[in-house]
Amino acid sequence: xxxxxxxxxLVGRGPELGELDAAFTEVRAGHARALLxxxxxxxxxxxxxxxxxxxxGAQGARLLTGGCxxxxxxxxxxxxxxxxxxxxxREIGADGVAELVGGRTAELARLxxxxxxxxxxxxxQFQARLFELVLTLMDRLAERGPVVxxxxxxxxxxxxxxxxxxxxxxxxxAVAALMIVVTYRSDELHRTHPLRPMLAxxxxxxxxxxxxLGRLSRREVGELMARLRGGEPAGEQVEAFYARSEGxxxxxxxxxxxxxxxxxxxxxxxxxxxxxxxxxLPDETQELLRIASAGGAHIExxxxxxxSGLGEDGMTRDLRPAVAGNVLAVDGDGYxxxxxxxxxxxxxxxxxxxxxRLHTRYAEALEDDPSLVPPGRAAAELAYHWHAAHNxxxxxxSAWRAAKEADRAAAYAEDLRMLERVLELWERVPDATAKxxxxxxxxxxxxxxxxDSAGDSERGIKLATAALREIDDPHRRAFILERRGQMxxxxxxxxxxxDLRAAIALIPVEPPTVARARALAGFAQYVFMGRANDDARxxxxxxxxxxxxxxxxxxxxxxxxTLACMDDRRAYAPQDFELLDRAEQIAVEHGLEEQRLRAxxxxxxxxxxxxxxxxxxxxxxxxxxxxxxxxxxxxxGSFLSINYAESLFSLGRWDEALAGIERALEIDPPRPxxxxxxxxxxDILLACGDVEGAARRLxxxxxxxxxxxxxxxxxxxxxxxxxxxxxxxxxxxxxxxxHLSELLKHTGRPDDARYVWPGLIVAVxxxxxxxxxxxxxxxxxxxxxxxxxxxxxxxxFYAELARLQKEVPHWEPVIDGWRRLNQPxxxxxALVSAAESDAAHGDRERAATRLDEAVALATDLGAITxxxxxKDLSDRIGSGARPPSHGLTARELEVLRxxxxxxxxxxxxxxxxxxxKTASVHVSNILAKLGAANRTEAAAxxxxxxxxLDN
Length: 951
What we know:
By secondary structure, this protein is mostly helical. The protein is built from 46 helices and 8 strands. The strands form 2 sheets. Strands 2-3-4-1-5 form a 5-stranded parallel beta sheet, with helices on both faces. Strands 6-8-7 form a 3-stranded antiparallel beta sheet. Strand 3 (147-152), helix 5 and strand 4 form a beta-alpha-beta unit. The longest helix has 22 residues, at 79-100.
C-alpha cells in the first residue's frame, strides 16, 4: 500500500541542504556529481528535494524529477524516466527534444508514445541505444545550463530503471554540468532487496556521495510543532510528540490534531503506513510480533522466549523474517521495533482481554526470574506490565519499587513518573500504606523532591501545593514551601518570594535547627540571584552561623557560595575564590552533589569574568560531566552549558559553542537557562554574519520572558545588547542607541559592570556623534572596573570614543589586552577600528598591516561580516608603501617569523592564539608560496627575498 509521506514543513535540514548546495556548486563549475539520499518513510526526503530544487532553480538549474511507482516491479519499466521525458516535452516540446538528440528519437518512443514507433535495426541492442540516447540528451541539456536530475523512491524502481540510473551515474564524467540525486527508503531495503548491491557499487565511484537522512532532534521536533501550530509549544507537549514520533517529521504532523494536541489513537493513514511491512510477513511471525509488542520498546530474547513458549528453533524461524524485513532490529541480546509506533500500532490491535493476559504473562515471568532482563531493569519492567495488566495492587507495589530504583540511579524523571503512579493508584488499593511502608503525605514529599531534581518545576509546584494540604509539621511544611518557592522562581511565577519568606517564618529562631539554617540559605541564594539586596546578605550570614552551630554542611556550603557571589569589590584575583574554595571543599567532603555543581557553575562564571576562558571551559566541562552522572543535566547541567558556550565563544571556538548549546536545548532546560542559550547562539550567529538566524534566536529568547521574574542582569542585559547589535547590522544605529538606554539604569548589583561594559562598547560603535553618546559616556565614567577583562573593555570603549571624537586613540593597549585574553574576535574588531583611525591620521601602511591580520582572524573564525568590512576598508584606503611580502598575508608573515625561530606548529599556535591545525595550514601555504621544500628552506628563502622577519 502506498501512503503519502510528504510533510509540508522543512525543519532541521541545514547540513543536508548545505551538502546538496555544495555539490550543485561543483556542478555549476563543470564537475558532475551524484548524491544517494536514504531515509525511512516520512523522514523528509521529498520535502528536502523540493527545497533543494527551489534553491537550484533560483540559480538557473533545469530541474527534472521522476518518481518510481510501487507497482514498477510488476511491469512498468522506466517509470521515473518516462515522467522526466514527459516533463521535458511539456517544457520544450517534442521537437525541442528531437533537436537535442539530432532527430534520433526512435528509441525515445520506448519511453513516450509522442515520439512514434520504436525503431528496430535488427541488432537487438535496444536498451544500449536507449541508454546512450538518454545520456546524450542529458549532455545536450547540460550544455545550455546545469541540470539537476532527481529520481525519487528508488526502492520501488524496476530493473530497467535501476540499470539506466546506474549507467548514467557511471558515465557522469561524460556530462559536465549534471547533478543526479537519488532518494530511497532505507527501511524498505531488506537484505535481498535489489537496490542494496547497486547502492554499494555506486557509492564506490569518486563523484558519488551517500547520505542517510536522520530523524529530527527533540529541539527540531519542537520547532516543527511551532511551525505547524503557529505558536511555541509547551515543553511537555514537545516531549510527548518526540517520544511517540521518535523524531520522524511526518509522524509528528500525523499525530497532531487540529487543536495542536497529540492524538490519543493513531490516524488510520499512519497506521496503514506503519503496518504495511508487518502485513507482508508470515502469519506465525505476525503472531510473535503481537506478543513482542506487549514487551515494550526493547525486549530481551530470553524474556520473549519465556512469554511466547517457543523453543529456540521456533523463535529463530519466526523472528528471522521480521529482522530480514526490517520490522525488528537486533538490539544487544534482544530486539527493538524499527520504530516505536510500529509496536504501538500492533499493541493497539490486540483485543482488551488479549492485552491483559499478555502483560500478566510478562509480569509473572519476571517475578519468577528477574534475570530475564538486565540488572536494574526488572523493577521498571514489572511496574509497566502490572499496570498494563490492570492489577492495581501489584501495580502500586511495583511502581513504588521502581521509584526507589530510579532514585538510586539518579533517574529523577522516571522516579517522578513512578511516584505519580503510586499517588494515582492510592485510593484504589486498600491499606496502601501497609503495602509500601510509607504514608500518602510522605509519597507526596518524595514526589516534590523528584520533580525538583528532574527540573519539572510546574509539576513540582502542583505536587508541593497538594503536599501542603496534607502536612502539618512546621519543619516539613517549611521544606516544601522552600522547594515550591525555588521552583516558582525557575518557572517564572511572580509569587516565589512569598513562599521563601513563609518557610523561614515557620521555623523559630530558638533553638537553632538544621531546618532554619537551610531555609535561610535557600532564601539567601534565590533573593541574591534576583535582587542582591541586604536581606540576602543578612540571611546568608545567619545561615552560616546557624549551620556552624548545628553542624549542617549543606547550609554552610550554600551560604558560603551566596556570600562569594555577593562580593561587589571582586577583582577576579585568586583571593576572590577563597569562599568558593571553602564551599566546594565542604561539598566534596560530604557528598553534596547539588552544591558541587553550584560551585562549578560559580567557578566557571568567575573564571570567564576574569578573562580566564580556557580554565572556564574545562571547569564547565567537568561540571557538565558530573551533572550527567548525577541526573542533574537538565537543571544545573544546562546552566553549566551556558558557561561552557560563553567561554568557547570568547576563545573563538564557535562551532563547539553552538554544538554545546544545541545539546543543552535538547533536554528542555528551565526557562531562564533556555533564554540564555538562545541569546548566546544569537551572538554567535550574528558574529558569523547570519543576521536572520540571530534575529530568530533573539525572538525565541524574548518569548521566554525569563527576565521578567526579577530582571537578572545575566539574562536581561545580554539580550538588550544583542537586540542593539542586530539593529546596527540592519542599518538602524539610532534605534540601537535608544534600545541601549536600559544600560543607563544603575542597578547596584555585584555583576552590574560585567554586563554593562559590553553594551557600552556596542553603544560607542553605533553612535554617529559624541553628542548622541553623552549619557553613555556618563554611565561609563560611573561604572567600576573589576579584573583584566573589564579593564580591556573599559579601554576599548574609550579608544572607540576617541576615534568618534576625531582624536588619536590609544589602540595598542587595547589590542595587546585582547591578545593576552586570547579573544580572537575582539582582537579582529579592535584591529579594524585601529586601522580606521590609522588611515584617518595618514598611517596607511600600519592600517593595511592591521587589516591583513583582521581579515586572517575573521576568516579563521568564520566571521563573514567582519572579514568583509576589513577587506572593504583595505580596498578603500589602499595598501600604502609596504615591505615586500611575495604574496604572503600578514598572518602568514607572523607565522613565518616564528617558523624562522624554529618554533613548532603547536608553539606557533599558542603564541598567535590560533589552533595547531590553522598553524599547519599557514605553514603549508608559506612553503607553497615560497617554493620551499621544508621549514628551514622557507626561512632561508624569506631572508634571501628580503622579507622582514623582525618582530
